Amino acid sequence: MSKQTKAIPKFATEEQERAYWEKHDSSDHLDWSKAAKVTLPNLKPTTKTISLRLPQHLLDSIKVAANARDVPYQSLIKVWLQEKLRAR
Fold this sequence. Notes:
Blueprint: H1 14-23, H2 56-69, H3 73-87
């Protein structure tokens, strides 16, 4: 059964719209059960710089593997970490 929803009011200004949504729930106006997931492929995820200490021989091996694939070694590390997380 579809949920009965209210019409979204017309707003004269962005300020009026902001004030309205601060006090009202969007689920009164939209049936979120019918919402489709959207992928935004051109968005770049936020990154955070970290410091990671690795044994020199491990870093050298990673750089050799990255060079063989013609990719930057830091990118290869990120790919490997993501693959490992997905495999869990």
